[in-house]
Every structure is written in structure tokens, then in C-alpha cells.
Amino acid sequence: MTQPAKNPAENAVEIVEVGPRDGYQGIGPFIATERKIELLGRLVAAGLRRIEIGSFVSATALPQMRDTPDILAACKQFPDLEPQVLVPSERRGRDAVAAGARRLVFVLSVSEAHNRNNVRRAPEESADEYRRLLQAIPDDVAIRLDLATAFDCPFEGRIPEAKTLALLKRLVALKPDAEICLCDTTGRADPDHVGRLFSEAPSRFPEVKAWALHAHDTYGLGLANVHAAYREGVRIFDASFAGLGGCPFAPGATGNVATEDLVWMFERMGVATGVDLAALVSVARDGAALPGGLAGGRVRDALSAGSAACAVT
């Protein structure tokens, strides 16, 4: 892809807040629905507009997500919010649309081992599920495709770029105008790998107009990988407030890159995010304190320490 233009409007990024889904799903103690809605409202007030509010999945597999229909219904009280929900199958996608969802995220893995561990089927079978879902939902429902283990798999190791591109070839043909997000599920991707894949994929599939990156920070490279994708022209990035998260089906993976860290980096670069960092840090502090949560990130603590030092001075 060509390097980013100097026009600030073209350099602006969209941050997709995924904490209420990716951040919560691995937490054992159930977070009260009212608490989830309160935190959601504060994230919206901080300027986050597109938020992944939950997933339509088996309540047995992910009990934390059992109130997603209730959270989705509550989104009506936030006019500026654009909620999206994750679905792994045609059936769950139908359920989400019936509940009022108008933006779906369909997820499947490049790695067969991870896909079978996650949704009990091969990637090719998930691709067929995706095709059936596209045929089943109304045209006014927006679709995003999350390609998990696009860089690395907890079971198979590093994923060859050719393998990711081969699956993309099949999936892009099904819906060329879908937003496509490449996911570093384990947090083991490196900036060179991210840069190469985000250079090659848009060149191979110019019909795709919106690419995104879902980065985890397991090995401390989350921000570096985001920056590598940004240099290749990517402008949509997932992040989780307080760095909450970790894939239940990727042993050892920690949370997404922290939303506050992402905002801090981009604002320091002169790249607009539309997010009020002070308001975000306030809700991130409360998110980090959720019982059973695994928080990450650096900016939240750094700003808190700075404020304390100023108060003492």
C-alpha cells in the first residue's frame, strides 16, 4: 500500500473498542449487566463510537456473554453508539439480527487447530457458514470478517502468509465490500510480519476498501504492530480499555493492546482519534479493577503516577 498522505483527515484513525466483548469474555465472576451498561456509557462519553458490546455464543462456553441481548437492547439509550456483536455461525448471526443487531462480526481462524478448538469445525466449514450467513441476513446489516490466527496460532505456531492469503481469496469473493480484520490472536506477531501481510493483502485484494488490525500485547509488541499496520495504510484498529482480555481458546494470550495506550500513541503522533484520553483513563482504571479481570497497558498507570507526583509537588 502507499504510505499515508499528509492530510490530517486522511491520517485519522478509527478505534474499535472491544473490551466489552474480548475484555470481559474470559472473566470468571459474572459482571452485573447494569455495571456493563454503566461502563459502556462512559466509554461512549469518552468518544468511542464503535464498540463490540458482546457476542452471540453458547452461554455454556462463555457464560460472561449470556446477557449480550440485554446489552444490545440497552444500546438504544446511547445515540452516538454504533454497537457490533461477534458471531461464529449462521445460527448465531440469525439470533443477533433477530435481537436487533445491525453490525455483525463473523469470526473464523486461519489455523485448523484453533478453529476446531474454538468453534468445532474446520476453517473451510466456517467459510461455508459465512456464506450461508451472508445469504440469510438483510442487506442493511453491516458485516465485518475477523480472521483469527492470521499471524500465529497457539497450537500450530507461526502461520505462513500464503496460508492467510489463500483463505482470504475464498472469503473476499463471498463479500468484497466487507471490512476485513486480521487478528494477532496470540500476540506473537512482529512488526515485520504485520507490515508484510498488510502490504500484500490489499495488493492482492484491491476490492476490499476497509482493513483492520486486532492486536494483542502478550509480548509487548501490540503498539509496534499497530504502528506497522498504520504505515501500510490501515486506519481501523481494535483495542480494549485497560488492556483487558485474552482469548479463552489461545492459552497464554493476554489482552488486546490497551485503548488508552493506542490513543496516547496516535495523539502524540498528531493523528486524530476522537477520544478524550482523560475520560478514557478514568473508565480504564475502573475496568482494571474488575474482579477476575486481567488488565494490561502502560499509559493508565503512567498518567496516574504523573498526577500523583504533581499533587505532591
From TrEMBL:
<comment type="similarity">
    <text>Belongs to the HMG-CoA lyase family.</text>
</comment>
<dbReference type="GO" id="GO:0004419">
    <property type="term" value="F:hydroxymethylglutaryl-CoA lyase activity"/>
</dbReference>
<dbReference type="InterPro" id="IPR043594">
    <property type="entry name" value="HMGL"/>
</dbReference>
<dbReference type="GO" id="GO:0006552">
    <property type="term" value="P:L-leucine catabolic process"/>
</dbReference>
<keyword id="KW-0670">Pyruvate</keyword>
<keyword id="KW-0456">Lyase</keyword>
<dbReference type="GO" id="GO:0046872">
    <property type="term" value="F:metal ion binding"/>
</dbReference>
<feature type="domain" description="Pyruvate carboxyltransferase">
    <location>
        <begin position="13"/>
        <end position="281"/>
    </location>
</feature>
<protein>
    <submittedName>
        <fullName>Pyruvate carboxyltransferase</fullName>
        <ecNumber>4.1.3.4</ecNumber>
    </submittedName>
</protein>
<dbReference type="GO" id="GO:0046951">
    <property type="term" value="P:ketone body biosynthetic process"/>
</dbReference>
<keyword id="KW-0479">Metal-binding</keyword>
<dbReference type="Pfam" id="PF00682">
    <property type="entry name" value="HMGL-like"/>
</dbReference>
<keyword id="KW-0808">Transferase</keyword>
<dbReference type="InterPro" id="IPR013785">
    <property type="entry name" value="Aldolase_TIM"/>
</dbReference>
<dbReference type="GO" id="GO:0016740">
    <property type="term" value="F:transferase activity"/>
</dbReference>
<dbReference type="InterPro" id="IPR000891">
    <property type="entry name" value="PYR_CT"/>
</dbReference>
